[in-house]
């Protein structure tokens, strides 16, 4: 029965085939309505077809490249068991360019990147920067993998920070009249879009999360800390000293002879000042005498020649730092020290080991800058600080309550963190702020108001954070141990460039 049903369809198909055959025969006949188009040269026709095909292929390929598809899909580098595309590398490459002050849209940048690097293993500057980008990518990929293996994940707050970051990028894109993806492509290279950016940011945050977890897991005995201190005590000790700079009056187009003369004048002034200094009081008064008119008030009223509790890394230039940290330096020692364009007059006051406790504090700033704020603005800032403290005292009087007030009222950059400063050490903050923090009688829960050059600070004392030199030596040992861990992780997971996909990096 099935054959009978198929016969009509077969007959109809045959009829249609015969009809087409007849129409073709008619078109080929002498009197047909449609005639064949001929070219004078078959080779010319073939070349034309080939050119058209190539043009279509080139146009299509160019459109594909501009879309960023190869940048996202082709493997550019393999790291251990991971394969990454050009957009993953470009996320770090473009950040590296920015850190060097290079704008990829500037023609001069291309010349800089194409220039010889002068470093072994890297033909051009671009090659070197791309290697740096890959190494940073490798570190984040491997650390994020370790985070996943340990079951670490982003907190709600961290996930919210990603959303806020993306929202900020979208807002900037709108301001420039661009779509978000076009804006991201301009910032991080062709192929970057919101989906890829989220992947890169999430991976980076997970890597940071594991890094913090790894560093906090290192342990060191008191003996370890003491050995680290004894090895390089200058890294942890604090210096009190006075300094005044005699700048040589060297004009931009000065000749060598003119530079030499200007330096001689500067040296003579420094030597004269040194002979008149017998103690701290005379150093301070002579600083006022030798200061430029615009600076005399600062030297007289603010005593800016005095530097208290400065660490080795915080002192410049190196000539002054090295002199201050010489092992046999004694209180009252003074000297004239040459720099590249003038002379420093320096007096050593004291060197101490950081035996003090670092502290944690919260504060709420109401801005009223000395020198720019009017009397009315200073009064208003003070009244606002007093009201905030009164509101706190009328409430629960807990650290959490104070932190909430800081989020709502502080005009400082750490308002979002509840005004928290952790690990405050001597010499870090302005004098009035530090004097309040390091008052020996200070105890957890203490509050008060402190006025500085920035305005009024409503203070909350959280507590101590540990002995300064021990914290610093522990941080150093942790850093060394962590760097060793990273080196071992990198050695175990070398990266391999896939040349076809790597051409889309940069």
List keywords for this structure.
Triger factor/SurA peptide-binding fold, 4-stranded antiparallel beta sheet, Chitinase A, domain 3, 506 residues, 19 helices
Structure, explained:
- It is a single chain.
- The protein has 506 residues and is of the alpha+beta class.
- It folds into three domains: 144 residues, Triger factor/SurA peptide-binding fold (Orthogonal Bundle); 115 residues, Roll (Chitinase A, domain 3); 111 residues, Chitinase A, domain 3.
- Helices cover 55% and strands 17% of the residues.
- The chain contains 19 helices and 13 strands.
- Strands 6-5-8-7 form a four-stranded antiparallel β-sheet. It has a four-stranded antiparallel β-sheet with strand order 10-9-12-11. Strands 2-1-13 form a three-stranded antiparallel β-sheet.
- β11 and β12 form a beta hairpin.
- The N terminus is likely disordered.
Compute the number of helices: 19
Q: Mind telling me which CATH architecture of the largest domain this is?
A: Orthogonal Bundle
The biggest sheet amounts to:
4 strands, antiparallel
The radius of gyration is 36 Å
Alpha-beta classification = alpha+beta
* Whole-number count of domains: 3
Give the amount of beta strand, in percent. 15-25%
Strand order of the largest sheet: 6-5-8-7
Distance between the termini: 69 Å
As for the CATH topology of the largest domain, it is: Triger factor/SurA peptide-binding fold
Residue runs with pLDDT of under 50 for 5 or more positions: 1-14, 23-39
Q: Can you identify the CATH class of the largest domain?
A: Mainly Alpha
Instruction: Let me know the average pLDDT.
Output: 89
Number of extended strands: 13
Q: Estimate the global geometry from the Cα principal axes.
A: globular
The helix content is 40-55%
